[in-house]
Design brief:
With 129 residues, the protein is mostly helical. The chain has five helices and three strands, in the order H-H-E-H-H-E-E-H.
Amino acid sequence: MAGKKRRMQGDAYDPNCPTRVVLDQIADKWTVLVLGALDAGPVRFNALKRRLQGISQKMLGQALRNLERNGLVTRRAFPTVPVTVEYALTPLGTRLTEPVNALRSWAESHIGQIVAAQRTFDARIGKSR
């Protein structure tokens, strides 16, 4: 079997499985929004920051570094003054955008029902918002 790569199989229900770290990142709201924003093609850092209203520069940088580390995003720096940085999805990241965009779309489509359920729940337990 020399020369053959062994395929790693994850088990997210195992507390020691690295899959949990990846799922934690994928489930992060900023990751979902960054992946959606990159779905149409490469985007510069500042354009991403403008698109993702409410994200801090630090949080965006952290999300992008984690995505890059996990092989989902590439970073390309251009020798300009100041340096221009552009991010794009890798093939692996592109394959992830379909389920992530479906999750975001589901949340957007059902937010009215979710808010109504929250209000009903909060009223039932005597919590006001």
